[in-house]
Fold this protein.
Amino acid sequence: MDKERALEILKEKGYKCTSSREAIIDVFIKNDTPRKANEILDMVSRITPGINFSTIYRNLDLLIKLGIVNKLNLEDGFSHYELSKGEHHHHIICKLCGSVKEIDLCPFKEMEKEKLEELGFEPLEHKFEIYGFCSKCKHREN
Amino acid sequence: MDKERALEILKEKGYKCTSSREAIIDVFIKNDTPRKANEILDMVSRITPGINFSTIYRNLDLLIKLGIVNKLNLEDGFSHYELSKGEHHHHIICKLCGSVKEIDLCPFKEMEKEKLEELGFEPLEHKFEIYGFCSKCKHREN
DNA sequence: ATGTAAATGCAAATGATTTGCAATAAGGAA
DNA sequence: TTCCTTATTGCAAATCATTTGCATTTACAT
């Protein structure tokens, strides 16, 4: 998802391309890693000073609804937001520094799905999160 | 995890076997599906009337720390708590009724882990959640 | 039975997120 | 460009799950 496409989607659906929205999208473009709402506020504030939390949240909700952004609920209890990628992916999360990285492997396709069928469950989406130590943190023992 | 084992762990680690703790464990034993804190309060209240939310939360945290209970952060934004099972498992979550069921298949062991190695990431735990329609909900279109 | 520390209840604090409402800005029409 | 309409924003207050401080109570070892 690039900026042009994001703005195009907004326009298509009848939403205005406001400076806040553009700033939020810019911040996502510059950040390849999922961010919390307060981090997004901080970064957007540098572009659009005075922007309010309610604007951030309202626009994040909108961008999620439009499929431009998606939201992760990680173990830390916060919502993390990232730009939607074309490619399906999952995440590895460091238990020490909290960093979140994408991995483009997906275990769902390799998985034996008979159990879901037995239960009559119709899968639509799935999340796979791996928690552990990232390369920077795995040698410091604390 | 059965009740005797849970109480044993409490004792071993020097925590008291209070009536609240016993009631919370009882509720978990009777419920094979993950529950939210307010549901746990409701159910425990029937056994121990007057029990307070802070007692629920404090004890859930303790039981988590002792490995008796574990906590899921699902897409609905709430924490869900379940009794720790010996067997490793994951969850299927219905997007309509919100029901959560365990599945005992794990895609991690089948997964090619080279990408994690490339990134120098040391995996410790992982979560796999499948969202979709459960057998009861998949035929009602709303 | 008693003493002591741990556990609980209560009420207030916290912190992320949401909402109502009045002021402002985007973007189409004149 | 200017004007108009409606969506969007800022602000402050409300929500709602969860946490915390403190005085009281309880578990359980002596």
